[in-house]
Amino acid sequence: MSKELKEVQGIIFKRQKFHEADLLAKIITKNSGIITMIARGALKPKSKLGASLLNFSYGTYVIVSSGQGLSNLRTYKNVKQFDGIFNDLTKNAYASFILDLVDHAFVEYQDLGKYYELTSLALTKINDGEDAEMITQTIQMQLLAAYGVEPELRHCVICGKETGDFDYSIVKGGIICSNHFYTDADATRLHLQPKETAVIRTIGLIPFSRLGTIKINQDTKKATRRAIDRIYQETIDLNLKTKKFLDELNLFT
């Protein structure tokens, strides 16, 4: 496959040393999916490439790419950084987890569709000091579809009822109304309070423009966090280091 020189807009989210003075950096891009770039000589003292590849940097990167495998970074334009995320441990943890989730949902060069804009907006809001926990929970719920798990949140999966008290059923893949709680084994129904189920429904369906606008108390937030964790564990079973670190931070909140 022939290589071409192209510009990509995106966000750097992983980097590591490669050989003596080179860097490998992963970037989530607007139109070309997730790409791993090699920046040759980026660790040399006189190189300007390394500074453009700090985590949570974003801008335009000029690469040589064949559409598969490693792409070569040539130069960059108008690169800035989410300083609020880079300099804050908690914001960094939430943002790293979000980007890790996206990274595992797609193969390299696969079009991310709406998820690039969703991710970019989430990082912007976290950087600006909005509720990182609720933004992350929203991303988790909306990313389920990218993993091939799209729960039914609009109505009861059994009878189609849209109003009333609901709970979430893992085995049935969505919400069930109180008339059908008896149909679900205790082990696979989350036993959420009606308000908690309402939050799960809302953040799973909320438009991008309202990302981060849901305000709930800490007890409800912890309950929905546990519920979403269980949905992921029993339907996708990811084992991410970024999630473990985030859980350790949350022990102190």
Structure, described:
With 253 residues, the protein is an alpha+beta fold. 34% of the residues lie in helices and 23% in strands. The chain contains 7 helices and 7 strands. The protein has helices at 83-86, 89-105, 114-127, 132-143, 194-205, 218-235, 241-250, and strands spanning 4-18, 22-29, 34-39, 57-65, 71-81, 166-169, 174-177. The strands form 2 sheets. The chain has a 5-stranded mixed barrel with strand order 1-2-3-5-4. Helix 4 packs across helix 5 (194-205) and helix 5 (194-205) crosses helix 6. The longest helix has 18 residues, at 218-235. The radius of gyration is 20 Å and the shape is elongated. The model has no long low-confidence stretch (mean pLDDT 94).
Shape: elongated
Radius of gyration: 20 Å
Helix content percent band? 25-40%
Measured distance between first and last alpha carbons: 51 Å
Give the helix tally: 7
Q: Strand-and-helix sequence, N→C?
A: EEEEEHHHHEEHHH
Strand order, main sheet: write it out: 1-2-3-5-4
Rounded average pLDDT: 94
Low-confidence stretches: none
How many extended strands? 7
In short:
The chain is α+β, with helices and mostly antiparallel strands. The protein has helices at residues 83-86, 89-105, 114-127, 132-143, 194-205, 218-235, 241-250; strands at 4-18, 22-29, 34-39, 57-65, 71-81, 166-169, 174-177.
Structural descriptors:
7 helices; five-stranded mixed β-barrel; alpha+beta; two-stranded antiparallel ribbon; elongated; 253 residues
